[in-house]
Each structure stands twice: as C-alpha cells, then as structure tokens.
Design a protein that fits this description.
Layout (H helix, E strand, L loop, with lengths): L1 H4 L3 H6 L1 H33 L4 H50 L2 H6 L2 H43 L1 H7 L3 H38 L1 H6 L3 H53 L5 H13 L1 H28 L23 E10 L2 E11 L4 E6 L5 H6 L9 E6 L2 E2 L5 H6 L1 E4 L10 H5 L8 H10 L3 H4 L19 H14 L4 E5 L7 H16 L2 E5 L3 H4 L4 E6 L2 E6 L1 H7 L2 H18 L1
Parallel strand pairs: 3-8, 3-9, 6-7, 7-8
Antiparallel strand pairs: 1-2, 1-4, 4-5, 9-10
C-alpha cells in the first residue's frame, strides 16, 4: 500500500505550501474546538458558586468569539485542502492522459478503451476523495482525539480510561471491515470498467448492431452486467451498513460508561459539575470524529484500490521511446532512403514479416501489393515506428530508426492508415490536424490535391462544417480524401498511403492520383493497394506473399513475369470489361 501511495508524493510535494496552510487552519480549528468544553466547565463551576450576570456575559462573549474564530478556520481548512485535492486531480488527470498518448500500440491491444476511461474518471475521482476529504477528516479526527484526550486525562485520568474501554473494539472493527471494503471496491471498479467497455463498444459499433438487428441482445447483455454491478454494490453497502452502526453502537457504550462512572464520581464529590459537563461535551464532540473515522477508512480503502488500478497504467512503459543516449535529429534535408535489412516481425508467435530485404530510394515511389494478410500494413507500420521489428533493422538515410526520437521521426512522415480516423471537429481542423499553423489557402490547396474541393461546396458551412464523431457525416471516400489532404498538408519527406483509395471510384481515383503526381515527385512515397490502376505508374512494384517479397519490378516487368501481379492485372481487366458490358 505504501509503495502504491508513493505515486502521489510528487503531487503532494508540489502543493505542500497549500497543504501546510490548510493543516494549520485545521489545527487552529481543532484547538479552538477543544477549548470550548473547558470554557463551559469554568462557566458551570462559576454558576454553582453563585449567579453573577457579569460572569455569564463574559463567558457567553468568550464562547461566541471562540465559535466564530473556529468557524473561520474551519471554512479556510475546507477551501484550502479540498482545493489542493482538486489541483492534484487536475495534474494527475493531465499526466495520465499524457502517459496514455505516449504508450505504444501493444498497450491498447491489452487494455480496453472503456477500462482506460473508467480508470481515468471513476478511479481518479476516488483518489481525489482520498486526498481531499480523506486526509482532511483523518487529520481532523486524529488531532481532535489527541487534544480531547489530553484535556480529559488532565481533568480525570480514571474517567478518561473508562471512556477508552471500547477503543480496542473500534480498532478491530476498522481492520476487519477495512480489508473487506478494499477487496470489494476493487472488484466493483473492475466491473465498472467492464460496463464502460461494453458501452463504448456498442456506441462505436452502433451501425453494425442495427445492421444485424442485435439491439435486444446487446441490451440484455448490458442489463446482465448492470444487474451484477448493482448486486456487488449492494453487497458493499451491506458491509458499510454493518460498519457504521457498529461504530455508533460502540460510541453509545462509551457514553453510557462515562455517564455511569462520571455520575458516581459527581455524587461522591470527586469531580465538579463543570468537569462532568465538560466530559460529556467532549464525548458529544467526539461522536462525529469517530463516525468520520469510519468514513475515512472507507475513503482510504476505496482510494488505494483505485490508485492501484491507476498505477497499472502509469507503470506501463512504452516499448517505442526515445533512445537512452543522444538521439539523431530527423531534419528537412535528411535523406529519405528507406532500407529494410533482414526484417522479421512476429505477433504472438506468428510471423507477419519473414526476412525482408528491401531498399526504397529517396524520392522513389514504390507500390506494395499482395493478398490480404500478406504483411503489407505490418511492413509500412515499421517506418513511423508504430512497432519495431522482432529481428533485423529499418534504416532511414543509413541510420537505424531506433536512434531517432519517435516524435521527431513521425513529423517527417505523412501517413494515411488503412482505417481512416477523423475527429469530431470541423473539416478544416481535421485537415490541418497535423499542421495547426496552416492557412485557409493551404488547407484548400491540400483538399484540392486530394480531390475534395467539389465536395466542400456541398457541405452546409464548407470547411467549417463539423463532421461528427469519426467523420460520421462523411462518406467512406470523403473520409479517405480528407485523410490524404491531412497527410500532404504536413509537407512530409515520406508519404505512406495504406490502401487510401479503396473507397473511391476509379474516376475519382485517377483525379486524385493526377493531383498527387506533383506532390509525390520529390518525396519518398509508398502506396499500398489492391487495384492495379493505383500502382501501375509507380517506379517499382513489390509483391508480398506470406510476409516475403516474391516479385519486384515495374508494371511492365511484372506483367511479363506472369506471377501474382500479372494474374491480378488480368482479373481486374476482365472485371472492367464485364462492367462495361453491363
């Protein structure tokens, strides 16, 4: 537990001045609160010796003054400590997000999106409650208990020891219930992650759900998860429901003991009426701290359980990171030659790439074709270091890619992945996403090169049209063209188009390729496609089969070779002829 809490130490240290001020206000509030029963004691003892109006007024004014001062310090105690906990929550949330952005692709294969969201929201809130109300009430309870005990021991140590008889039972109850609350809450948070993941997947795949008429099946599965979540929360509520009344029962026993023992001593003349009233006032004041102690234990157990889940993310290290020593800068004039040297890529024991040796010269346009699953996407994903080869090396300009800072390297690459992703923002913001300093004219130029200009006029607000989550309002072809515009606007040294024209018709494809001709002329370009029309004008065409290069050459050379590419070309020619007949 202590090791887990050390994660929070840098944040606590950052706000130590505010915390010290808050704890100082808390200490002053508790000192003043502990002084109130003493004032009452002297007032009652004075009245037993005879009524004096002047004395009563002085004591009344003193009680009012102390109460007002106590209220002021209590106000600032809450404002400062709760405020600091919010500041720590803000910093921790930013750090979690920054860490998530840095983590490599393999992390997102192991953690579900809904689970990550639950840890970043619900668990973080539990940690904030531990740091704010948890620390505040724990400090208030401890200090108030110590101050009260000190005064009570000074007044009558025998009566104080009598009042402490239930204390061991309180400790046993706290340990017993605390462990169960921690275990149960940790399980509940995991279930909340399952529910969040289910909701996220259903919302992201709502079109598929509707297409297959699976609404009722998904609702039923969600209901089962939700019912189990409620059942576990009710079980936790039962534990808490036993814990709090047990504490209150022990407090009641303490009151009975004080009344019984204190009443006897009062009748025997061993203590004054004022001391007896003071003891009972202290016992009344200690009711909330003792109840709060149980609540604090609850908060601490919830907070540590949630912190353990957050630490699972924070302790993840990216497999793709900056080199330990000096990194090489990928500047604008750096050679964009790409060389794959005996490259192997394995996923879970399966070879996606098997010993590829391939050199792509700077400024050359190379196309990659092959059956589905032949390793095309895996090969190009090595270039921006989305993952590293299991064996062999990938070099740019003769330098191993692992010597580059990944962020620096990726700034030099324009990448249109197979799965197009657009953000819930305007079309202009999506196109300029990789080049935020771009002007409207530059955005329009990139859109024109990508063949999107004619479509922009049909949108309600042109470039300023909000396209919805994942580009919901755009067609598949419009999404791909927006992604192409985004890639070329960055003016990259290396341009990668991974099946980026699959959703457009052949006429639009030809228009886009003509627009891209000037863009591709002075930069290293890699095209992946299943269409011969897309790749036939490339300087070289590489054919992959089961992760290996089986053919390489120009369009004409591969036709004459009579292999996979020639078969693909003949098949597509036949399809075009059949389409023309229809």
């Amino acid at each position: 537990m202590l090791q887990s809490l050390m994660t929070l130490w840098p944040y606590v240290r950052r706000y130590r001045a505010g915390l010290m001020l808050g704890v100082s206000s808390l200490l002053m509030k508790d000192v003043l609160a502990a002084a109130l029963p003493v004032v009452i004691k002297y007032g009652v003892d004075s009245l037993t010796r005879g009524f004096q109006l002047k004395t009563v007024l002085q004591l009344a004014l003193l009680l009012i003054g102390v109460s007002i001062a106590k209220g002021i310090f209590q106000y600032w105690m809450r404002v400062i400590i709760i405020g600091v906990s919010r500041d720590i929550e803000y910093d921790l949330r930013n750090d979690i997000f920054y860490h998530l952005v840095k983590l490599s692709q393999d992390f997102y294969g192991r953690f579900r999106t809904g689970d990550i969201m639950a840890r970043s929201t619900n668990d973080l809130n539990a940690v904030r409650m531990m740091l704010g109300p948890g620390i505040m009430y724990w400090s208030e309870t401890s200090i108030m208990l110590l101050l009260s005990m000190a005064v009570m021991l000074h007044a009558d140590w025998r009566l104080t020891l009598t009042a402490l008889i239930p204390a061991p039972f309180v400790s046993v109850a706290v340990v017993f219930f605390g462990r169960r609350i921690h275990t149960r809450f940790e399980h509940i948070q995991k279930m909340f992650s399952d529910i969040s993941s289910r909701v996220q997947e259903n919302l992201a795949g709502v079109r598929v759900i509707r297409a297959y008429a699976q609404e009722k099946a998904e609702v039923d599965q969600f209901e089962n998860l939700n019912r189990e979540y409620v059942r576990e929360n009710i079980a936790l509520a039962r534990i808490q429901g036993l814990f709090m009344p047990l504490l209150q029962a022990l407090i009641g026993v303490t009151f009975l003991l004080v009344l019984w023992a204190g009443g006897r001593q009062l009748l025997e003349g061993k203590i004054s009426l004022g001391s007896f009233v003071m003891f009972n006032t202290y016992m009344g004041m200690l009711i909330w701290p003792m109840i709060a102690f149980g609540w604090v234990v609850n908060l601490m157990q919830r907070g540590t359980a949630s912190l353990n889940r957050i630490n699972e993310i924070l302790h993840e290290t990216p497999t793709i990171s900056r080199p330990a020593g000096h990194s090489v800068a990928m500047h604008r004039g750096h050679s964009a030659q790409i060389r794959f040297s005996d490259v192997y890529v394995r996923f879970g024991g399966r070879e996606a790439i098997s010993g590829i040796d391939l050199t792509i010269e700077a400024g050359e346009t190379v196309a990659i074709v092959g059956h589905t699953g032949s390793g095309k996407t895996s090969l190009v994903n090595l270039i921006p270091r989305l993952f590293d080869p299991s064996e062999g090396s990938v070099q740019i300009g003769g330098i191993d890619m692992r010597r580059f800072d990944p962020e620096d390297l990726r700034r030099a690459i324009g990448f249109v992945p197979q799965e197009t992703f657009l953000f819930s923002a305007t079309l202009a913001e999506n196109i300029a996403w990789g080049a935020p300093e771009a002007t409207v004219e530059q955005i329009r130029w990139a859109a024109g090169v990508a063949g999107l200009s004619s479509d922009i006029g049909t949108f309600p607000k042109g470039l300023e049209t909000v396209i919805g989550e994942r580009g919901l309002t755009l067609s598949g072809g419009q999404k791909q063209r927006a992604a192409i515009a985004r890639a070329i606007l960055r003016n990259p040294q290396i341009l990668i188009l991974d099946d980026a024209l699959s959703s457009v018709d052949t006429v639009t494809e030809e228009k886009i390729l003509n627009g891209l001709a000037d863009v591709m002329r002075d930069r290293t370009t890699i095209l992946i496609s299943h269409r011969v029309s897309t790749v036939q004008n490339a300087n070289r065409i590489v054919v992959l089969e089961r992760g290996r290069v089986v053919e390489i050459g120009t369009h004409q050379e591969l036709q004459e070779l009579g292999g996979y590419y020639a078969e693909l070309y003949q098949k597509q020619l036949l399809e075009e002829e059949l389409e023309a007949i229809r």
